[in-house]
Amino acid sequence: MIYVVANQKGGVGKTTCSVNIAACLADAGHRVLLVDADPQANATSGVLGGGRPPAGALTMAEVLLDGVQVSAARMPTVVPGLDLVPANADLAGAMVELVGRVGREGVMKAALAGAAGEYAYVFVDCPPSLDLVTINALVAADRLIVPVQCEYYALEGLSRLMETIGEVRARLNPGLVVSGLVMTMHDPRTRISGEVIGEVRTHFAGLVFDTVVPRNVRVTESPSFGEPVIRYDPHCAAADAYFDVAREVARRG
Description:
Elements: E1 2-5, H1 14-27, E2 32-36, H2 42-45, H3 60-66, H4 70-73, E3 75-76, E4 82-85, H5 94-99, H6 107-116, E5 121-125, H7 132-140, E6 143-149, H8 158-171, E7 177-186, H9 191-203, E8 208-214, H10 217-221, H11 229-232, H12 237-252
Parallel strand pairs: 1-5, 1-6, 2-4, 2-5, 6-7, 7-8
Antiparallel strand pairs: 3-4
Helix pairs in contact: 1-12, 6-7
């Protein structure tokens, strides 16, 4: 099953969701592949123990642009059972180079088709935009997870994202299912945080995950150590929440 984690708004916890949900499912004994499709490569550094891929390592740029097999580009991470297809800044040119290709929207789907059968779960972390790389991911996906920050401005663009999903379903991937919206960075001390959760649950009834991920300093610290928060501090509130989110992902299918 291929899951895409996407939201064109930055800073909503998209990479944190990708890394930690994938890590939780790997921790539960599943074989999981994390695909970093963002040229910022934060998911890559977040699971490699604070390091970067070795010099000469193949990345998602080569997979999309040069036809390199996922099996040749993947590498192990600090989480047993979790493999990574890394990214780097070269991926920023992928959108430009893909524009002139025949079947440009389906390049990632073709690339992941073989690898998907080897893993119980594949998670694709997308850039904070609705560019051609994100469209490729949506075409490749079976399921979509949308992180939504518990702040007012995070609501902006959510309708546009849902429109894009509808267009992708209509033209390119009729089997795409929205697994759910994950509310992130909840601060119970502020009224707006609760109001945003209520508004999203009202407008997207049935699509919002039951679990709300709290704002937690451990989440901001863990990437600097190259670890998911569920390994950096497995007993913190955010780690507990991501384990619950992972259970919901498994239950929702």
